[in-house]
Each structure stands twice: as structure tokens, then as C-alpha cells.
Amino acid sequence: MTAPALPLQTLTYGPDTADWCLVALHGWGANAADLVGLAPYLRLSHMAMVFPDAPWPHPQAPGGRMWYGFPAGYDFRRPHDFAAQADLQTSQAQLKTCILELANTTGIPLERTILAGFSQGGAMALDVGAQLPLAGQIILSGYLHRAALAPVSPRPVLMVHGSGDPVVPVALAHQAKAALTSLGQPVTWHELAMGHEISPQALGLISGFCEDLRQASQNPLGNPLG
Predict the structure, then answer these.
(1) 119 catalytic, yes or no?
(2) Catalytic annotation, pick one of 53, 87, 91, 119
(3) Is pLDDT above 50 for 1?
(4) Which CATH superfamily, name and number, covers 10-68+80-218?
């Protein structure tokens, strides 16, 4: 593949006066427009929301994007060395640059930025998010595509997964939770009766997590996530 040009294309939603930022990453074969449609339902009036498009065009889904390719016939039930893939390495570098640039362009520091991701976007949020001093991470139907990294700063993690997920087995999310916990990251876990999706209940959990972090920053002695 020829490396796509920087920076990543993004869609935005929210007020110009926002004091916090939520960056949300789509899954394999989707795009930023798929997620931005959910933004009004989050009701996060104090947050700027940014939705990057993955760098690579999806080979089968017209208009779809991907953070990296999967081997032919891959079904998440066998190991694969994703870290060796050049397309993943490019996406890692471009996503990290994109988030760092957002802090400069919005004036909202990384310490008031939350990184969320769905499915393959959740894997990217686990990977790149650990390398940045974020306020928090939200992993929706996600998994680890390489060994978990120790975070560069403390932050809570919200994990939401469907008990009947037919795409990313919930066992992989349990493995990711255990790995994060072993690295000292506090994880709030919700296993919902759903498939591979972002349900209305999941949207409520996302909103509550984001608002709790924002309120905690204004009241440092409080600990609503504890």
C-alpha cells in the first residue's frame, strides 16, 4: 500500500466553546459518518466530538475505511501478528499525530480528552490511547491487537461488550480487561445483552462516563468513578 497523506480526515460535532473533547474511532469497513450520527444522542453539551476517518479504503465496502487489514478468512479465534503489519504501523503513527494536532487546534489539552473506539477502532484506542496522557478511554466491542501497553499516565477505562457478539468474541474483551487491570488501569466493565453494536444502553454508559470525568475534574476531591 502507498501511505495516505496526512492528516487524517475528520468530522466534528459540538460547541465552539467546548472545554472537553471526545475522539471516537469507527470500526472496520465503517467511516466517520457512521459514528457522527450518534453524537446528538450522547447529549454532551460541553464536549467537542471529533470523528477521524481511518487512513485506508476498505477493499469490499464502498466508502468504508479500515485502520488495517485482516488476513483472508480471519475470525478472531486464531492468533495473528498484527503488530508486524505496515498498514497498522502507519495508522498508529497517523492517529497519534491527529490527536496531538487536535490538542493544538482546539486548545483542549489531552488531559481533558477522552478516546473512544468501536471494534477495530476500540483496538486502536487501546493501543494509541495508552501512549498519550488522556483523561480516559472507552472501548466498545473491542479487543487487543497486540500486547497491552502500560499507560503513560493514570486514567480510567470504560469497556462495553455484547454477550452475544458474533464478530469479536466477548472472551477477547475479558482478556483485554485482565491485561489492563494487571497494568494498574481501573476498568469499568459492562457486558450487555446485545451483539456487535452500540446500543442505546451503551450510549447512556458513554455519556455517564464522560460527564463523570468532567465533573471529577471540577471537583478533584470527588471520585465518581471509584
Answers:
(1) yes
(2) 119
(3) no
(4) Alpha/Beta hydrolase fold, catalytic domain (3.40.50.1820)
